Amino acid sequence: MTGxxxxxxxxxxxxxxxxxxxxxASKPVGGLSFDLHGGRTLALAGESGAGKSLTAxxxxxxxxxxxxxxxxxxxxxxxxxxxxxxxxxxxxxxRISLIPQDALSVLSPVHPVGDQLAAAAxxxxxxxxxxxxxxxxxxxxRVGIADAARRARAYPHEFSGGMRQRAVIAMATINxxxxxxxxxxxxxxxxxxxxxVLDLLGSLCExxxxxxxxxxxxxxxxxxxxxxxxxxYAGRTVESGPVxxxxxxxxxxxxxxxxxxxxxxxxxxxxxxxxxxGAPPSPEELVTLTGCAFAPRCPLADAxxxxxxxxxxxxxxxxxxxxxxxxxxxxATARELFQEGSPA
Amino acid sequence: MNPLLRVRHLTVHxxxxxxxxxxxxxxxxxxxxxxxxxxLALIGPSGAGKSTTAxxxxxxxxxxxxxxxxxxxxxxxxDGSALRATRPAxxxxxxxxxxxxxxxxxxxxxIAEPLRVQGRWNxxxxxARVGELLETVGLDxxxxxxxPHELSGGQCQRVGIARALASEPRLLVLDExxxxxxxxxxxxxxxxxxxxQERLKLGYLFICHDLAVVRHFAHRVATLRDxxxxxxxxxxxLYSTGPHPASAGERAAGRPSPPSWSNPAGPEGGxxxxxxx
Lengths: 344, 277
Fold this sequence. Notes:
The complex is a heterodimer.
Chain A: E1 8-17, E2 26-36, E3 41-45, H1 52-59, E4 68-75, E5 78-79, H2 85-91, E6 96-99, H3 103-106, H4 113-122, H5 129-142, H6 148-151, H7 161-173, E7 179-183, H8 191-208, E8 211-216, H9 219-225, E9 228-233, E10 236-242, H10 243-248, H11 253-260, H12 303-307, E11 313-316, E12 320-322
Helix pairs in contact in A: 4-5, 4-7, 5-7, 7-8
Chain B: E1 5-14, E2 24-34, E3 39-43, H1 50-57, E4 65-70, E5 73-74, H2 80-86, E6 90-93, H3 107-117, H4 126-136, H5 153-165, E7 171-175, H6 183-200, E8 203-207, H7 211-217, E9 220-225, E10 228-234
Parallel strand pairs in B: 3-8, 3-9, 6-7, 7-8
Antiparallel strand pairs in B: 1-2, 1-4, 4-5, 9-10
Helix pairs in contact in B: 3-5, 4-5
């Protein structure tokens, strides 16, 4: 994959918070690198606190105050991290959109949904009221809201959760951006609706050549809706590559543990599920981290893992990369490694 | 042998806006049994009446018809004080672990609260009992001094379970206890519940959207649709009996695999085992 042809090229992205009088220094995200092409979907997978949301916000230039974002984020070849807020402001809504976790927080409760979509369209394009309204209705129709012309006059509270999420997707895609970052866009929905909303988001992006970054802890959903996946642990890349490869033949013990903890399709013989014992390190501990961040919880860890930080190595076809000293040591029945995990 | 819980023709109405019209049943003549040591899962689409059924079993909401026989006694027919005496035996565990704990109470007080309310708090043995409960749910008793915001989601859910166990229940009503938790944390909570059930012979009424979890965790599965039970199956038959009645016909074309029917960790990539809809 060459950097030149990618829409988004990220190198060594880190987010740190310098310590203050009342707060110790922390480094929740460290050294992420990936490329993303138009029309493709990249998933950032990992558990709560893995730095997924912070990464998303850093990418789109919305890192929280006090955060120090370093590395390189090139969008269409243009470096964004050093370009400042104005460069980002030019892109927001037009070329880059963010879909946050909570759809309700995006929509204003006091304006009809259609008006809010029309405003999003007019903020970027020179459109008359009627044209903007028509664009809003069309956008609602595209996300599968029946009778869009009438529903455009409804307020968010008159929509179900699934419809609200669709409306937010309609808003994020109304100006056909080049990049959509969706941060757990469906956690509040039931799995049936979740799947339909992700399908919709995927097909919208495919049709317009929009690149999608999908942030989720739901590995089955990632398998169905993403092309590539980046597994994060403690803000570091553990493993990355095509979803089929990474989620079927994981090479990192952490990925294997996550997969093992899912209920399988096999006949249930033991009602106890494998788990990963222990808890992830705090962002403060990561400042002075030596060795692999997962080592304290890893069933394969040895002395080297605690002292030497592993470097990413190629593990298979399609750019499958893994960052683990023991990437060749994972047994085929990795499930058993986590069978007697202590409670997390 | 009598089951632990026997629900017969349970009916709950929503008052309709128009007073002249008859009220609409949200739960419509629902019947099921749960034995001691058994898990019955309730599944179905949003709005099918799963949580309303759970609320009615707990008598958080009085049913408009039918019986809720707990250990042979009809809870719907009990008056206030008799019901209060029975309540400790049926305990809820809710979905939102943060939302179901008071942010102002320390963990140990949250767990002791049911005992205090029931007038069973013994200042001499109580603190030790709270520590014991924390250990039972796999938490360090030293966490007793923390408040919910200092805990992770999984830890909060364990506190919620410890609090339910404080009343020494025979039946737990688990309304989406693992939704929104990370996979590994979710597995830990499910293992805890499985272990508790085996040890204490608890009956579980388990509401969950994730069919893979239901199939793994439950013994039997009842599917609700529009307030009625449309099928009750052994959990192991969940995949072999065709599409989820709740999802049939509702699926968008295109990618065929619905969330819980696919094989998340199987050997052949993302190929679904069965097409739906």
